[in-house]
Amino acid sequence: MHAWPASEVPALPGKGRDLRIHDTATGGRVTLAPGPVARIYVCGITPYDATHMGHAATYNAFDLVQRVWLDTKRQVHYVQNVTDVDDPLLERAIRDGVDWVGLAERETALFREDMTALRMLPPKDYIGAVEAIPGIIPLVERLRDAGAAYELDGDIYFSVEADPHFGEVSNYDAEVMRRLSAERGGDPDRPGKKNPLDPMLWMAAREGEPSWDGGSLGAGRPGWHIECVAIALDHLGMGFDVQGGGSDLAFPHHEMGASHAQALTGEHPFAKAYVHAGMVALDGEKMSKSKGNLVFVSKLRHDGVDPAAIRLALLSHHYRADWEWTDRILQDAVDRLGRWRAAVSRPDGPSADALVEEIREALADDLDAPSALTAVDRWAAAQESDGGTDESAPGLVSRAVDALLGVAL
Prior knowledge:
Elements: E1 19-23, E2 28-32, E3 37-42, H1 53-71, E4 75-82, H2 87-96, H3 100-117, E5 125-128, H4 129-145, E6 149-152, E7 155-158, H5 174-183, E8 200-204, E9 220-222, H6 224-235, E10 240-246, H7 250-265, E11 271-277, E12 280-282, E13 285-286, H8 297-302, H9 307-315, E14 323-324, H10 327-344, H11 353-364, H12 369-385, H13 393-405
Parallel strand pairs: 3-4, 3-10, 4-5, 10-11, 12-14
Antiparallel strand pairs: 1-2, 6-7, 7-8, 8-9, 12-13
Helix pairs in contact: 4-6, 6-7, 9-10, 10-12, 11-12, 11-13
């Protein structure tokens, strides 16, 4: 599966700072100091409706992570999946009377268009669940053969008891885990499971649903969590730098994925840091496909909204915050974009060297994009009121805003 084209990231003078970021597993900030190649895995979409502002906010956060790393002169190995076979996708295809494969391809193509328009840096490896199945099957077999998985009416379940570190990603208690499992695709009440929290690794073929030859597992399709584990292990290996996604993925998805990988390899941790973006609401409720309260990037683009303004609207909120999308937020972003573009259009201006360092410091401090925007606002205000004589300043501001914030002026 191919990703989307990469926009050029301008080079800046000097060097960025190592990223200090909130780690869900420890509950505090950690300083990430990757090697020459920083490794990040971000969970992708289930392509039955793409791309709403909640998606965009999440991918914007991890785009900033990449940009901070690139500014430290590191390379970045970014991997993202596409869950192109799963219950929600199949249910939507049935509801709309369309082929599930065609639906997945259409929505994935739209997602690529939105990511391109928003100048999100693409993953090096963009892998669909379907294409990953040949690598998933042997992992499930290994877990089963090691006693870390078991069969129940033809389905294969992972035993959470097989990982002594289970629970260390989300740090939720058993009651909360059970509730969230039921809400987020699990089946804690299914009779016969060794532990209500045990997640499915391989679903035996159901009538009328797609399935693949699973060898000794029988015909079926993979569970949600093992998909990402197989892709991450294949392309990044254990102990990669950041596992990312929305805060609703901390449990069960990232918790279960970590336990799958740790049981498979005997190593810990799966990722050095688990980083989660906040939820975006509309009309008082979390924006989600199941509720249908969505603001789509493609619809805004179709209505003539500049993608740079959409990106500025996202950047105006801290990535870990839960916030609500409003027309006012978008209009403020449109106005800010206009002020910035007017400021850099002049032939000279106030020196911008300190501004570049302010942006770097803000982003290194747990991706504090709102503070970075405020710093640019101050420079633009100084340009408007007093101006300056530094002929290099407007160009430097344009390059810095592009390189570090992903906004083209």
